[in-house]
Amino acid sequence: MTDRDNAVFNTMRQPANNLRSGLADTLMAQIESGDLKPGQRLPTEQAIMRATGVSRTIVREALATLRAKGLITTRQGLGAFVSNDPTARSFSIIPNDLQSIDDVLRVLELRMGVEYEAAGLAALRRRQEDLDRMQDRLDALDKALEEGGYGAQEDYAFHRSILVATQNSYYSRLFDTFGDIMVPRQWARLDKMTVTERKRHAARMRREHHAIFTAIRDGDEAAARRAIRSHLSKSAARFEELRDASTSS
Question: Which ranges carry the HTH gntR-type domain (predicted)?
Fold first, then answer.
């Protein structure tokens, strides 16, 4: 590894909440800037470990993230190389991206920007078939929550039905690149709740989702935007509380 490469990777020596994401971001930045060019071989795992001070596991997880995003390829016995067309893959969020509550909060920020606009458009453009679909998804979410489940897949399906109702396929196609990872069950810590807390959480979820649906059904653009923003803001507030509780304990 050259001195120039070491200068870049040495930024990872500082403590970070998520070393894997930090290393992956460093490599992605080098690829996107052209410092690491298409077809160029990446430094070996050992070289990256020496330069950054992170473990082999962290290095391998970071490289796995880059492979999943289509930015690098691996060749048997030769190592990892920058893809010939590293920008050809569509943007995506994969499970390895959500390694901390801070990562979840960043995804929620993205969702708020997308879904705030989508909810308003859905209120203006929804058709009866869209409302029927949303009602079905809402019923499925209610049933999952009543049965004590997480309702992650049902939650995702309901939110996706809002995007479909915009009559702009780019919204739903964007959501499809994420899948139900947009509803990060693994960080919700619902299994740590008491029965009473779980019931309170389920009631809040039903109330907020029904408010979104009602506003869209009634064609109230402003109310739809307020409802989706309130829902996602409250979700973010809960994750912030979980993060703060984990750091103070």
Answer: 17-85
